[in-house]
Amino acid sequence: MQYASALLDRPQEHPIRSLATLYLLWKSLLLLVAACSPGPGYDTSASLTQQPLSYDRELPLALRYILTKLTRWDALYFVKISTRGYLFEQEWAFGWGFTRIISAFTAGPATSSHDLSILISGICFGIATTFRSNGILNGLLLLEEAFRTVYRLRDGPSLATVRRLMATGLGGMSVGAGFVVPQYIAYIEYCKGQQSVARIWCEGTLPSIYTFVQDHYWNCGFFRYWTLSNAPLFLLAAPILVILIASSLWALSVEPQTPGQPPAPGAKGVDINTGARQVLRNLAVSQLVLVLLTTTAAHVQIITRISSAYPVWLWYGSASSMVGGNLLGENFVKFMIIYAMIQGGLFASFLPPA
């Protein structure tokens, strides 16, 4: 108190501290007046803020009491509009700019963190694509997120929506760059270098050394691998192909459930929310696309190696083993141990799937 008194007696000596002290004293006085005032009066809007919270934890009694005194219906209007936009005519009495600012801040840390995660995941997927081209299938995750974000724009643009669209766009470009950049480097080397004669693939509409090499040196192409001599390789790949297809269909059939509720029939014991289901569904689609491309246009036995990059079939095996009643699920782990040992021996002898 002596320090505060000294600041007030000689405010010019410490103007900023004096103003800060006066501000705190004044606001404390107003808060005391509000706390001691009779109420709640005719405006009971503050009671809406005291609904049970989603994580079953109530605010302290003192804080709830103060909130009741300080919260008024115009504040609730501003907050509600900022979260879901303008819905009713009377809401347009509340300033558009202020609601947009609130929306930006209320969507702040969690949304910004999620947007950053999307961008980082796109960069990681792009790096993975430079390792092996099937990594580009991970871009389906970001593609659907971009489509859903564009669809939300029908309700009007917001800072959070635009930021999400930018994150998915940059993430998707990163995935694509993982495939395009190596092709561009090869194009500069073979098509724009000092060679007297450019390679034939340089004249293509979309020149790609990768597609040319797969076609020219590995004889990859639509149904080219479907020969009688390759039948043993299809048999070798068949178990993992069956598991990939079965797990993808399982993932596409999983429905979101309310936390704490018993699993729905056919859910394989998976407790999943809507957001997680979207990711699971996208990964399942990527898995099915991989199966389609591998069985029709590639050396089919490579599926036994590249399938390790797709987690859905592992989740399916885990969920089926826990629930039981599924012949594939119950014997999944046992079979995969034997299957992996056989493949390990073949690989070490430079036999397929090597």
SSE ordering? HHHHHHHHHHHHHHH
Proportion of residues in helical segments: 55-70%
Q: Oligomer, anyone?
A: single chain
Termini separation comes to: 81 Å
* Overall geometry: elongated
**Alpha-beta classification:** mainly alpha
Please give the domain count: 3
Query: Which regions have little confidence, pLDDT < 50, spanning 5+ residues?
Result: 258-262, 264-269
Radius of gyration: 31 Å
The biggest sheet, with number of strands, parallel, antiparallel or mixed sense and barrel status, is: none
Strand content: under 5%
**Overall mean pLDDT:** 80
Number of strands: 0
Counting DSSP H or I runs of 4 or more residues, the number of helices is 15
What does this structure look like?
By secondary structure, the chain is mainly α. It has 3 domains: 104 residues, no CATH class; 108 residues, no CATH class; 121 residues, no CATH class. Helices cover 64% and strands 0% of the residues. It contains 15 helices and no strands. The N and C termini lie far apart (81 Å).
What descriptors fit this protein?
single chain, 354 residues, mainly alpha, 3 domains, 15 helices
Please provide a brief summary of the model.
The chain has 354 residues and is mainly α. The protein folds into three domains: 2-105, no CATH class; 109-216, no CATH class; 228-348, no CATH class.
